[in-house]
Structures are given as structure tokens and as C-alpha cells.
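Lecture notes, part 5. Sequence design as translation. It can be helpful to think of inverse folding as translation between two languages: the language of shapes and the language of residues. The source text, in C-alpha cells, appears below.
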């Protein structure tokens, strides 16, 4: 069995995501999880990182996912500036793009939706950012 991603990667991504939540009908924190290296199957990567079965995955274009998040944060910034995390989300997007060679977003479920951002370094190290959404 291959080793999980070095804790330095997890700590770095945890710093970037600290205080962020994914907004849907509820707000859910972002959890940063180490993933087994050299695994090309996203479902296996996510299941190993989360310790749970995720069911069928649908890949979401990364740009579309983050555009939606940033659009929501711009609305929050206009309505309640003190509650906005727009700058932090922008920083996360830039850091993921510059630090990882691949970033993919997957969804699983229909009402209780698991959202998984799988990030891979040039060395094959992987980190999973997991959150959830409620969509009715």
C-alpha cells in the first residue's frame, strides 16, 4: 500500500481553507483529508480519504464550481460585508492552481450532496477537500 500524502500538504491546504464553508441550503465546513498516492480512480481516492463509500460520482468543471462559489460570496459581500469570505475563497483558488498540477471536483448524491475537490501534486501526492451541500 502506498503512503498517504505528507502532512505538510494537508497542513498547507488546511491553512488555505480555514474558516471557509460551502454555502447551500446549509453551510458546511471544508475538511482537508490526506489521500493515498498514485491512485487514478477518483472514487477510490475519495473513499480511502473519507473512509466512506461515495456512490456514483459526477465530475464538475473546476471553473464552473469555483465561479458559483465566488458568485455566492460576492452576493454575501454586498449584503453583509462582515460575513464575506470572498478574499479567502479567491486566495484558495489561486493557491490550488499554483500549488497543484491537477484539481478536479466531484459530486455524489442528489439531496445530501457530497462535494470533493481532489488535488494532485507533480509527485502524485493527493489531498481531498471534502464538504457537503443540501439541495432540495
Amino acid at each position: 500500500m502506498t503512503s498517504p500524502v505528507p502532512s505538510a500538504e494537508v497542513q498547507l491546504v488546511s491553512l488555505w481553507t480555514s474558516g471557509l464553508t460551502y454555502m447551500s441550503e446549509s453551510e458546511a465546513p471544508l475538511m482537508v483529508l490526506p489521500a493515498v498516492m498514485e491512485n487514478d480512480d477518483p472514487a477510490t481516492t475519495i473513499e480511502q480519504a473519507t473512509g466512506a463509500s461515495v456512490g456514483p460520482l459526477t465530475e464538475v468543471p473546476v471553473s464552473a464550481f469555483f465561479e458559483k462559489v465566488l458568485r455566492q460570496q460576492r452576493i454575501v459581500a454586498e449584503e453583509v460585508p462582515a460575513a464575506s469570505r470572498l478574499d479567502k475563497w479567491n486566495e484558495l483558488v489561486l493557491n490550488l492552481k499554483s500549488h497543484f498540477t491537477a484539481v478536479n471536483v466531484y459530486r455524489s448524491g442528489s439531496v445530501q450532496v457530497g462535494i470533493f475537490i481532489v488535488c494532485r501534486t507533480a509527485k502524485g501526492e493527493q489531498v481531498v477537500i471534502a464538504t457537503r451541500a443540501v439541495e432540495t
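The translated text above is only one of many valid answers, since several sequences can fold into similar shapes. The two ends are 40 Å apart (CA to CA).
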